[in-house]
Design goal:
Radius of gyration: 18 Å
Strand content: over 45%
Largest sheet: 4 strands, antiparallel
Oligomer: single chain
Shape: globular
Length: about 220
């Protein structure tokens, strides 16, 4: 309904915004307090809003483990998936049949995939370094993850079944974090860097696969 939502420390703020002129049109005002973030100091707040203006958010701290839980659209709990664990990077496959998560293994994280129907999880990555941020392809057949196995986070593509050969999608000396996959499967959005400013790039998955800047400014960008 013409507002931008953002965190100011732990307060969720809304500010009137004209999407046609790309201008703020009023003062920011608080919507909810004590919004949970993925971890202390992170930019990602646990909130989202639907196209018809319904807001969902989580309050409190993120310490300890969590339970993957199913809710219907009225907010009624209808089931759980797997056992409690310190889950991160939770992502439901587009076909709704599997859920990818990252789980700590010592000081690093690995990607696991849950079969929704059976409630069983299978390990997806096996490297001793960090693997995070799994993003599903639109047809649910492949997953992109990032890994710092070479000293910086690069992008790797692997069949969602876990079988087959892993493909290096993009490798250079800049950290890269998967963001989103276009609905037609032709483009991949990722973020660069660990410190501000963070920039957004689009990686074509055809031709020479040369990344194209999407948004580069002095400010931090995320999606």
């Amino acid at each position: 309904a013409g507002h931008l939502l953002f965190l100011r420390e732990t307060t969720l703020m809304a500010q009137p915004f004209d999407a046609q002129r790309l201008q703020l049109t009023g003062e920011a005002f608080p919507v909810a307090e004590q919004i949970q973030t993925h971890s202390p100091g992170e930019l990602h707040g646990n909130f989202s809003v639907s196209e018809n203006g319904v807001l969902v958010y989580q309050t409190g701290t993120s310490a300890g483990g969590s339970q993957l839980t199913w809710f219907d659209r009225t907010g009624k709990q209808i089931g759980v998936l797997g056992d409690p664990a310190p889950y991160g990077d939770v992502w439901l496959s587009p076909d709704g049949k599997r859920v990818s998560v990252s789980i700590p293994s010592g000081s690093t994280r690995d990607i696991w995939v849950y079969d929704v129907a059976r409630g069983l999880k299978t390990r997806f990555t096996f490297d001793t370094t960090d693997e995070r941020a799994p993003i599903w392809s639109p047809d649910s057949s492949r997953i992109v993850v990032n890994s710092n196995r070479k000293g910086h986070f690069d992008l790797y593509l692997k069949p969602a079944s876990g079988a087959g050969t892993e493909e290096v999608l993009l490798e250079d000396k800049i950290d890269k974090y998967p963001m989103s996959w276009s609905a037609d499967g032709r483009f991949f959005l990722y973020r660069t860097g660990n410190t501000a400013p963070l920039d957004l790039f689009v990686l074509p998955l055809f031709g020479d696969r040369k990344p194209v800047p999407f948004l580069q400014t002095k400010f931090t960008k995320n999606n």
